[in-house]
């Protein structure tokens, strides 16, 4: 009997909570009168009959083939030479008004699911890095993408320039989900679960599903014509969007029991404006995940980057962004929605800190609402459309 590998997401049956659980906080605890939400996430080789049985099981929330992941790769990059008179902060840090905020990320845990990190870069000297390798290669960053993204979220100043938004984040979860050979949506799903269990308040993902690559794989490996291969890929694309939607719902449900978290993800760089625009790609396309568009500078205000996909929820600086360079001690400039996403994650960390100080906990629905509502059109050029920037450029809490 032939089998194929699938990702299966199911709810677990849990025992009823006791009255002693009432009013407690923390991951893994329950509130009185409600069972704690738990899921079982696994990859399994399934026959057609087993798949059909699982689909009929009411506990099954999602079932999907693992699809290939790829970086939301920078559209350009260049090393930043040392400057005897460096700028006090990057233009992105200034645009989201981080220098004006009284918050610095204290007490907040962020997760970066990417290509790993260069733990020896001076930008991360003061942060506690919890690394988890979901690949089969070296656990550190061999690409540079994850290091750059992490630097924007919580990196310390480098050569006199502020690159990080939440510079006092003391604990960062670094999930390496992409290696030289790429990764899969199954790996990413496991990493999201790991980050939540490790106490993440904010989960940042600058990656996406490689739909064209999956079609090519079906054509080359299975000898299929492109038309049926595209149809099959579309079905698995839909199933994977549902998988990440269900994972986001679980993250939201988990927040009711003391550990609130939100997920932000890059919308993608597939557009080529003004010729054409592409809609947001998974996992950012999943309901409950904040999709991030990229902005650049112009003489008339901030404009939508020509590569940025539409249907974004919010937007942030994503063109010529300076941040930490892997295997070096300096900075590198990159452009992409990958670079916009950590700006949003950093802003979210400051809003999370504000919640912690005011209420003692992070509530994910209100955190998501505060983050999205912080967006403003004020610095944007005239004519920018909501479909491209969502609520506008995100802003840090100022009080």
SSE blueprint:
Layout: E1 4-11, E2 39-46, H1 48-56, E3 60-64, E4 68-71, E5 76-80, H2 91-95, E6 109-114, E7 128-133, H3 145-154, E8 171-176, E9 183-184, H4 185-197, E10 202-205, E11 207-209, H5 211-222, H6 226-255, E12 262-266, E13 290-296, E14 303-304, E15 314-317, E16 321-324, E17 331-335, H7 337-359, H8 364-373, H9 386-389
Helix pairs in contact: 3-7, 4-6, 5-6, 7-8
Q: How does this model look, in words?
A:
- With 399 residues, the protein is of the alpha/beta class.
- It has one domain: Peptidase S8/S53 domain (Rossmann fold, 3-Layer(aba) Sandwich).
- Helix content is 29%, strand content 21%.
- The protein is built from nine helices and 17 strands.
- The strands form four sheets. Strands 6, 7, 8, 10, 12, 13, 14 and 15 form an eight-stranded mixed β-sheet that branches. A three-stranded antiparallel β-sheet has the order 2-1-3, with helices on both faces. Strands 9-4-11 form a three-stranded antiparallel β-sheet.
- It is globular and about 70 Å long.
- The protein starts with a strand and ends in a 10-residue tail after the last helix.
- Residues 14-33 have low confidence and may be disordered.
């Amino acid at each position: 009997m032939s089998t194929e590998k699938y990702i299966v997401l199911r709810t677990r049956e849990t025992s009823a909570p006791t009255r002693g659980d009432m009013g407690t906080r923390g991951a893994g605890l329950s509130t009185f009168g409600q069972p704690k939400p738990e899921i079982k996430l696994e990859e399994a080789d399934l026959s057609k009959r087993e798949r059909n049985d699982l689909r009929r099981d009411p506990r099954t929330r999602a079932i999907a083939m693992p699809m290939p992941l790829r970086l939301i790769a920078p559209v350009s990059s260049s090393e930043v030479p040392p400057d005897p008179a460096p700028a006090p902060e990057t233009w992105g840090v200034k645009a989201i008004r981080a220098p004006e905020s009284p918050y610095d990320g204290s007490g907040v845990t962020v997760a970066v699911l990417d290509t790993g990190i260069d733990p020896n870069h001076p930008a991360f000297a003061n942060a506690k890095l919890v690394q988890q390798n979901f690949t089969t290669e070296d656990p550190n960053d061999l690409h540079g993408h994850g290091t750059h993204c992490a630097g924007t979220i919580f990196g310390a100043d480098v050569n006199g320039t502020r690159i990080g938004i939440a510079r006092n984040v003391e604990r960062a979860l670094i999930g390496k989900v992409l290696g030289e050979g790429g990764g899969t949506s199954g790996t990413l799903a496991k990493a999201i679960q790991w980050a939540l269990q490790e106490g993440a308040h904010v989960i940042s993902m600058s990656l996406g599903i490689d739909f064209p690559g999956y079609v090519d794989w079906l054509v080359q490996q299975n000898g299929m014509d492109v038309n049926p291969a595209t149809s099959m890929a579309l079905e698995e694309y839909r199933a994977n969007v549902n998988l990440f939607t269900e994972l986001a719902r679980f993250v939201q449900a988990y927040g009711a029991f003391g550990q609130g978290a939100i997920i932000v993800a890059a919308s993608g760089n597939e557009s080529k404006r003004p010729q054409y625009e592409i809609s947001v790609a998974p996992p950012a396309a999943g309901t409950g995940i904040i999709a991030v568009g990229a902005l650049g500078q112009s003489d008339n205000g901030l404009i939508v980057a020509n590569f940025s996909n539409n249907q974004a929820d919010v937007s942030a600086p994503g063109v010529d962004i300076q941040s930490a360079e892997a295997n070096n001690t300096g900075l590198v400039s990159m452009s992409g929605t990958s670079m916009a996403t950590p700006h949003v994650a950093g802003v979210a960390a400051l809003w999370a800190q504000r919640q912690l100080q005011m209420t003692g906990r992070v509530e994910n629905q209100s955190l998501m609402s505060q983050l999205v509502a912080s967006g403003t059109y004020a610095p944007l050029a005239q004519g920018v459309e909501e479909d491209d920037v969502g609520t506008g450029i995100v802003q840090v809490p100022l009080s």
